[in-house]
Amino acid sequence: MGHSKQIRILLLNEMEKLEKTLFRLEQGFELQFRLGPTLQGKAVTVYTNYPFPGETFNREKFRSLEWENPTEREDDSDKYCKLNLQQAGSFQYYFLQGNEKSGGGYIVVDPILYVGADNHVLPLDCVTLQTFLAKCLGPFDEWESRLRVAKESGYNMIHFTPLQTLGLSRSCYSLANQLELNPDFSRPNKKYTWSDVGQLVEKMKKEWNVLCITDVVYNHTGMSFINNFH
């Protein structure tokens, strides 16, 4: 027999500002928005930028949710609108009372991490992570032996600082080219590419049971890259 779907309920109340509150949920959960005491009997519309199934997420694109009333009661005690949470990420919701915004907030849907040749689940609460400063790893053909130390020490996730070409400051987070792999990882007679990095990451995932993450730092572009536009 399959497991029943887990349902989480978020009560909406008039003028309740929850923009600084983060609701953490899991993929596969059903989130139900229900009317709190202050909104019973009032015309309320809930909007969210959580996408329709199969659609690409667009932070600026909101849609209204339809109310359901399974018991067909005349009051609002059993009325709700829902989201089936299949996509991980951070999403926003807000609701209107008539034509005026009456409240809103954010939800975070945790990802499901898979690792190993059998693609088993790695629970988020079981992640043990070590950070490597990418610029200190040396030539790419030496990475595997250095990263293996983390594996043998019991880590199951490795965090790389950005792997792109660095700016003049040589800061790990000042990037001269957002698209180019740092040439410091290559040797005079061998140029390494993103494909090589991808193959190592895949090997670590399948054979070592180790996942990899890195940073996205669009707001730290070095001057040498900006000068290319002049």
TrEMBL record:
Specify the Eukaryotic glycogen debranching enzyme N-terminal domain's residue ranges.
31-115
InterPro entries assigned to the protein according to its UniProt record, in alphabetical order? AGL/Gdb1, AGL_euk_N, AGL_glucanoTrfase, GH
List the molecular function annotations (GO) for this entry: 4-alpha-glucanotransferase activity; amylo-alpha-1,6-glucosidase activity
Q: What's the source species for this entry?
A: Canis lupus dingo (dingo)
Identify the PANTHER family for this entry. GLYCOGEN DEBRANCHING ENZYME (PTHR10569)
Transmembrane region(s): none
GO BP term (any one) = glycogen catabolic process
Q: Which stretches make up the Glycogen debranching enzyme glucanotransferase domain?
A: 121-222
**Domain of life of the source:** Eukaryota
Protein name listed in UniProt: Glycogen debranching enzyme
